[in-house]
Each structure stands twice: as C-alpha cells, then as structure tokens.
TrEMBL record:
Spans traversing the lipid bilayer: 39-57
Keyword Hydrolase recorded: no
Organism of provenance: Neoroseomonas marina
Protein localization: Cell membrane
Name recorded for this polypeptide: Polysaccharide biosynthesis tyrosine autokinase
Domain Polysaccharide chain length determinant N-terminal: 28-114
PANTHER family linked to this entry: FERRIC ENTEROBACTIN TRANSPORT PROTEIN FEPE, TYROSINE-PROTEIN KINASE
Topology relative to the membrane: Multi-pass membrane protein
Positions in coiled-coil regions: 343-392
Length: 746
C-alpha cells in the first residue's frame, strides 16, 4: 500500500492558516501556563517571604502608642491693626510650621532633658542599618536631607534627641487645626510621658514665641518713636529758621474762628491797598469840589452856586453883610440921590464886603487846590509803596512755596509720629491681654495593649509582596529564556507554522514497542505526517529536507522517524544522510566509513551507485554519508546531487534528506534549495531564538521552501503544564489514547 504524494503549501500560507481562528483567551492561557510550570517557584518565594516575616515578628519587641491632641488656632485680640505684628496672624502655613517645630532638634533636646532620656534604653547607640543607608545616600547623592540630622559626635544627649526626632509622629486632618502628636516605644508609660512632654514644650514654645514677638515689637516701636520725634522736631526747627531768614513771620487772626495766617509784608500790602483806594477816593472828591468851586466863580460867584466846601462861616457872614449892604444901598438909592454921601458910603461899604468876599473865596479856592495837590501826592506815595510791597510779597510767595513744602513734610512727620505713638500705646495695652492661641485638648495616657507590630497586617503585606515578587520573578525568568517552550511562542517569534511536537524518548522507543513512550513517539510522528499531508496544495512534493539551526537538535532522529513511519505505512522511502561533516551515529546508517553519498558526489563509484543503498527495513532505504575525501560544500554543490535527487524522486515515494545544521556551514542551504520542501527542527527550550531566526533567514534567502517547524526532544510532562494549545491538552489529559491503560478510550 502506498500513500498519496505529499502536497506542501508555500511558506507564506503556513502560520496564517493555523492561527487565523486563534481565540481571544490564548494570552491569558499562556500566563496560566507559565504559572503552572513555575508555580513551585512562586510558592517557594511566598513561603520564604511569609516565613521571614513570621521570624521577624517573633523576635520584634512590642511597642505601645500614645497620642495627645493640641489645638493650634491664632486668636489675637482685635486691637486696631496689631495683627500685623502678632505671630501667626493670617498664616496659611501655620499647621505645617507647628509640625516642623515639633520635629525640630531644639524641642527634642528639651524633652530629652526634661525626661532624662540621654542614655536610656532605646535612645542610645549608633544609627541602625536603614539609618546608615540613608546617611550614605545623603553623603553620596544628596538624598534624604533628614539623615544629616544624625549627630556625628557620640554625645548621648544629641543621640537621644536624634532618635526621638525620628520617632515623633504628627497627624493633621485637612481643614482642622488639631494636631495629633504620637510616638511608639517599648514602654506604654514612657510613650505617654514623651507625648505629654512634647505637647507641653510646644505650648511653652508658642508662649515664648508670642512674648518675644511682643518684646521685639515694643523695642522696635520705641526706637522708631525716638527717631520720628527727632525728625519731627528737626522739620519744625527748619520751618522756623526759614521763616526768620525770609521774613515770613505769621500774624494769626482769630476773628470768628481761625483764619489763615498772614505774613507782615502781605498784611502791609493789604493795608496800603486799602489806603490807596481811600486816597484815590478822597482825591477824586477834592478834585470835584475844586472843579465845582471854579465853575461857581466863573459864573459870578453867586452864593447859591458856591459849593459847600466854600460856604464857610466867614463867607456866609460876608455874604450876609454884603446882602445887608446891598439892601441898604437899594433903600438909599430909592430915597437919595446918586451923589448922596450915605448912598456913596453904602455903596462903598457894599463894595468892601464884596472885595472881602472875593478875597475869602479866593483863599478858599486856593485851599481846595492845595488839598487836591496833597491828595494827589498822598495817592502817588501810596502807589509807590504798594508797588514796592508787591515786589516784596512776590518774593515772599516764592519763599512760601518752599515753606509750604517744609510744612507738608513737617505735618507728615507729625502724622507718622502720632500714628506710631498710638500703635505703641495699643501694643503696651495689648501685651497684657493677648489670648492663648494653643491649648492641650487631650493628654496622652498609657496604652493597655501594644500597637505594633501588627501581625495580621504585616503577614498580609508579606504574603502579597511575596506573591507579586514571585510572579514578577517567574515572568522575568520567562522573558529571559532563550529557547522555545510552546508552539505559540515558536510561531509568534519565527513567523512559520508549528507542524509537530516530538517527545524526548530513548532509541528503543523510537524503534517501536509497547511502552507509553513508544506509543507517544509513534503518535507524534504519525501526527506530523498527517499534518504534512493535509497542508497540501497543487504542488507535488517528493523530496523533503530536514535541518536545524545548530547541532544536536534532533533533526536526524526526526528524519529517521518520518522515514520509518512512512515506510511502515507502505511507502517506498529513501533516507539520505547529507551531513558529510559530522554524520549522525545511527545504527540504521550502517558502519562508519561505509561508502555512500560522498562517494557518489565525488564520482568514485563504478556505475550509478545504487549498490550503496541499504534497506534497513521493508520499504526504508538508507543512503549513508560515506567517507568525505574533499570539501563537503563543493561536493554538495556539484550537479551530481541534482541528478541523484531526480533519480530518487522517480524511484521512491518519499525522499528525506538529513542535512547539516544551517548556521555552522552553508551545506544545508545548497541541498535545501534543490528540495521540494524543508522541515525546520527546533529543540525544545534549547535552541536560541536568535539562532533560529538567523537560520530561517538564510534558508529563505537561499530559495528553500520551509513548510514549518517541529519541536524536538520535548519533555511532555513539562510541556503539558506550560503549553496552552490542543497538544498540551492531549498530552495532559489523554496520554494513553493510543491503546494504553488509563486512556479512557472506548
């Protein structure tokens, strides 16, 4: 019986055909496969981690926690704007500041002195391993600046303060002004005493801080007041000196209240201006009287026409006398003749009165003219004085500009001085009424039970950390593996189909037998042949090369297994050993040194060389490598190889060629390019991935038709635990399917 000729697909159809229906859950199954294979390592790491934590917990000293609550809230008395000098007023970082104060070395030293902790158990000795590590990192890289607080000297007080600072814990909830101060020590009583001492030191520090701030403010205000007083007095002296220098003496008026101050020159200017107006008015009045009198005289000097100024008692008397004389003359004229002595006397008397009246009027007119001249002279004098005073006042105005500047400066100095004086008075009053801004809400009491170590939490953390570390370590090892452990990994890395898995068996199992190993090996070979058959296309395959990347990867056993399986199924099979450099030591290939392929390729045999073929079992013929007498690469590159393969493909149903590895030499490339197909052997978990990729690249570049890869020397038990495909399921759950006990076949 013969089997149909093999039909193998081109390389580009292999992986896609097998993987196009890959389920989504395959990556997850791969992860679980890794955990199944290396789960013992994860369990070991978890046991070590939990065991180490248990050992530490059994040796750890129990510690007791004590805590106290302190309210930090600035409540300054509202005294004007003294909050500007009150500590912590409006300070958004108040709570952070108090935490830093609590952890400061100064507070720690005070607590050490108060409780006499220097040299006490737990507060003495050098730094621990972790502290030394942080100090080293700080000195080397500048990390962990708090490590520099550890005292370099061996002073017990400084050492105790450093240890205390490192143990102090402070908590604060957001939007709260309450600080929770806590510490853990081996003694419950000591923990409570330390926390209460810390709270007391914080409150005392706050009181000292506020008192010192008030004292500094008072001293500053006092010094500032002295300076401002000197400046105010100096500015006032400057004003007075300037007034005296420029004659700007003030005359203060107080009628109907306070009036603006006037200088002497400005007051004189105002007086002269008023006098000038009065003099000008008087001159005009005098000139009017003079003009009226002159007009009256020009009109005949009638009494009724004379101005009032010329109507003096003498003139009125003379006028009366002249009128009486005129009346008597008129009376005498009516009764006497023109030459009558009485009439002549009356006329003479009247003329005398008229003469005297004219003389008096002339004298009055001259007096008016003198008065007008005097008024005019006085007005001119006043005008001259007014002009002179205006020039002086103009100079005073220029000086007053500077004076006003000096006065503004003096007023500003006085205002500043009075403001600071008011603040200083308020500060002196507020120093005695400042309210407390920190108070102890709850003091610490000794704990009844230890707070650490928390066994349950630490064991859970150790378990979780060990589990995560173990899983990470396992997957790290998996990533560092060089070989291929599953068909999925092989296909994803190399890009070719995984067409079979050959278990690691003995020579006896490979030849056949009734053992489970023999059955599994035979089943794997049969399955590989079946895969090669169903991967058929229109291309007909007679010659198949079996090669690998490196030596000792199971390619020769694979070729022999395929040849034996095909022969037992009724096919005529020829197995050619083309590894001329290092022929495999297999009993089926005959004794070493027997003539074979090398002699045929070298042309050293008589005839066509068919007599060197050995039939090791029915249907299976073997052509050994022979004894090489030249360069193996030249022999495999000779035309005789092609003729041999043509003859073999015509006379045998299947020709299998076992070639040398690809990477050590180019022999396999010379043979593979002349064959119909190439099967690539990869040793399970041994063949480096880079070597396999390089070998496949060389095969493809030489024109070889690589149909797939076969994993060889597979330990099925381990393979079944780590792989996630159907083969692993078959080997894991149906090991005896091929007629052996426990297979469950029905």
């Amino acid at each position: 019986m013969t089997v149909p000729a093999l039909h193998l697909p081109p390389l580009r159809h292999g992986p896609e055909t097998l993987r196009e229906e890959e389920p989504i859950g395959v990556p997850v199954r791969r992860l679980f496969a890794v955990l199944r294979r290396r789960g013992w390592l994860v369990v070991l790491i978890v046991l070590l981690g939990v065991g180490g934590m248990l050992a530490w917990l059994n040796r750890a000293t129990p510690e007791y926690r004590a805590e106290a609550a302190v309210l930090i809230e600035p409540r300054n008395t509202q005294v004007s704007d003294l909050q500007a000098i009150s500590p912590d007023a409006g300070n958004a970082n108040l709570i952070r500041t108090q935490i830093d104060i609590l952890r400061s070395p100064a507070i720690a030293r005070r607590v050490v002195d108060r409780l006499e902790l220097a040299g006490a158990p737990g507060f003495s000795g050098g730094p621990g391993l972790l502290t030394r590590l942080t100090i080293m990192l700080h000195d080397t890289f500048g990390l962990f600046p708090e490590a520099a607080r550890w005292p370099s000297s061996g002073d017990p007080r400084e050492t105790a303060a450093a240890i205390l600072s490192s143990r102090i814990g402070v908590q604060n909830e957001p939007r709260s002004h309450v600080l929770i101060i806590w510490i853990e020590t081996p003694s419950a009583e000591l923990s409570a005493r330390i926390v209460n001492a810390l709270a007391a030191e914080l409150l005392e520090f706050r009181r000292r801080q506020k008192g010192a701030a008030m004292e500094r403010a008072h001293a500053w205000f006092s010094a500032r007041l002295d300076e401002l007083a000197d400046r105010m007095r100096a500015s006032e002296r400057t004003i007075e000196d300037y007034r005296i220098e420029h004659g700007l003496t003030e005359l203060i008026g107080t009628r109907n209240g306070v009036t603006p101050s006037l200088t002497i020159n400005r007051q004189q200017l105002d007086d002269i201006a008023r006098q000038l107006v009065a003099a000008e008015t008087e001159r005009l009045r005098k000139e009017g009287q003079l003009a009226e009198a002159e007009a009256a005289l020009r009109n005949g000097g009638r009494v009724d026409a004379l101005p009032e100024v010329m109507n003096s008692p003498i003139i009125r008397t003379l006028r009366d006398q002249e009128a009486q004389a005129g009346a008597r003359e008129a009376q005498l004229s009516a009764t006497l003749g023109a030459r009558a002595p009485d009439l002549q006397a009356a006329r003479s008397q009247r003329a005398g009165f008229q003469r005297r009246l004219r003389e008096e009027m002339a004298n009055a007119l001259n007096g008016l003219r003198s008065e007008v001249a005097a008024a005019r002279a006085q007005e001119a004098s006043l005008r001259e004085r007014l002009a002179a005073l205006r020039r002086v006042v103009a100079q005073d105005n220029v000086a007053e500009v500077r004076l006003q500047s000096l006065q503004a400066e003096a007023q500003a100095n006085r205002a500043i001085y009075e403001s600071f004086l008011t603040r200083a008075t308020q500060l002196a009053n507020a120093s005695g009424i400042q309210e407390a801004d920190a108070e102890l809400v709850s003091e610490a009491v000794p704990a009844e039970s230890p707070s650490s170590p928390k066994r349950g939490r630490l064991l859970l953390i150790a378990f979780g950390a060990s589990l995560v570390s173990g899983i990470a370590f396992v997957f790290g090892l998996e990533r560092l593996r060089e070989g291929f452990s599953t068909p999925d990994t092989l296909e994803s890395t190399l890009g070719i189909a995984s067409i079979g898995v050959l278990p690691q068996t003995s020579e006896r199992a490979r030849k056949g037998g009734s053992s489970v190993a023999a059955a599994q090996y035979s089943a794997s070979i049969a399955r590989l042949r079946g895969v090669l058959q169903v991967m058929g296309t229109e291309r007909r395959t007679r010659t198949v090369v079996v090669t690998s990347a490196l030596p000792r990867e199971g390619k020769s056993a694979l070729a022999l297994g395929l040849a034996r399986s095909a022969a037992r199924s009724g096919s005529r099979v020829l197995l050619i050993c083309a590894d001329l450099r290092s022929p495999p030591e297999l009993p089926e290939l005959g004794p070493s040194g027997a003539p074979g392929l090398a002699e045929i390729l070298a042309g050293n045999l008589v005839g066509d060389g068919r007599d060197v073929l050995r039939e090791v079992e029915k249907g299976l013929h073997v052509l050994p490598s022979g004894s090489i007498a030249g360069d193996a690469q030249e022999l495999l590159g000779s035309p005789r190889l092609g003729k041999l393969l043509d003859w073999a493909s015509k006379n045998f149903d299947l020709v299998l060629i076992d070639t040398p590895p690809v990477l050590p030499a180019a022999d396999a490339l010379l043979v593979a390019r002349q064959a119909d197909a190439t099967v690539f052997a990869v040793r399970w978990e041994r063949t480096p991935r880079a070597a396999a990729r390089d070998a496949l690249r060389l095969l493809n570049s030489s024109g070889a038709h690589v149909v797939g890869a076969v994993m060889t020397q597979v330990k099925l038990r381990h393979f079944a635990r780590q792989a996630s495909d159907g083969l692993a399921y078959l080997y894991r759950d149906h090991r005896g399917y091929y007629g052996h006990p426990g297979d469950g076949r029905g």
